[in-house]
Amino acid sequence: MATAQTALPRRKQLIQALIKLENTLPALVWFFLVVFQLAKVYEEPWVSTIGLLLINSVAMVLFLTRRDASRVGNFWEGLLAVSGTFVVTLLLIASNDDETTLGSSASPLATIVQCIGIAGWAVSLIALGRSLGIAPADRGLVRHGPYRFIRHPLYAFEGFFFLGWLINVHTVSAVIIVAVWAALQIGRIIREERILGGYEEYQQQVRWRILPGIW
Fold first, then answer.
1. What's the whole-number average pLDDT of the chain?
2. Domain tally, the chain
3. For 187-203, how does the pLDDT look when each residue is reduced to its tens digit (9 = 90+)?
């Protein structure tokens, strides 16, 4: 009986999360990303395209079911986060059609690096769970999974994925776009850390943000 009573509020919370506009809007954006990536998988079924389809699908579900934020950042912090999230879409414009999918024609090194990036990205995303967000917000501090070792594994493995892209698409425009993305993530990380509750204690437990021994 106690199990049924506890399951009822959880179900109610899930329904409330599903109908919230701040959840459905980003989920809708990610739905279009899923459709786009599905088309890419159809054109070039490869580890990178299938991996991105998986990641975007998981993110879409997590946006729909994420927790309410107890604290959120300001407009400029939100703009920084949105810019940091979507600036890499310019890589699709800067690269030609053969390069954008990083499919079977990609170098073995680029494929290996991207596989590592996608695997770590997916694990970090699942660990983050219902605390996922774009703009800085406090939806609960995550300390398990890869977050036990570095404080921002999601950004770290995204960076690894884009490193694999650069190995295969080593043009000046691609390097500039990824460099801008990295700079935006640094600003995003600093702003996020000021919003999350209990972060000082976590910072003492997990020293490094992205690269152990460096930063």
1. 83
2. 1
3. 999 988 888 888 889 99
